[in-house]
Design brief:
mainly beta, 4-stranded antiparallel β-sheet, 56% strand
């Protein structure tokens, strides 16, 4: 199986910045797309940003121009740089990876445990 471990969450004031990291480990044949999702209390989980193995990116309209997703394929790690943070960015952020563990298996999505990001003064 694939394990995803996140770090970098915490409390930040409006207008501040945070950088989230997510590293994959375990039995991995190949990781395809990686992404960040978030879920605020009482709301549905939503896609924040995604990146393919080739580096193509996609962002939610609410974070365009403020967030940047990147990855280091050699380290099986994905990052989310969050700038100009707003209170409405407060949520639990989840790392996701589309991966297969052997050449014989089909790919599936794996999830991190989630990390809390709180934007408040």
């Amino acid at each position: 199986q694939v394990q995803l471990v996140e770090s970098g969450g915490g409390l930040v004031q409006p207008g501040g910045s945070l950088r989230l990291s997510c590293s994959a480990s375990g039995t991995i044949f190949r990781i395809y797309a990686m992404a960040w999702y978030r879920q605020a209390p009482g709301k549905q989980r939503e896609l924040v940003a995604a990146i393919t193995g080739g580096g193509s990116t996609n962002y939610a309209d609410s974070v365009k121009g403020r967030f940047t997703i990147s990855r280091d394929n050699a380290k099986n790690t994905v990052y989310l740089q969050m700038n100009s943070l707003k209170p409405e960015d407060t949520a639990v952020y989840y790392c996701n990876a589309d991966a297969k563990i052997t050449t014989w298996t089909t790919s599936r999505h794996y999830w991190g445990q989630g990390t809390q990001v709180t934007v408040s003064s």
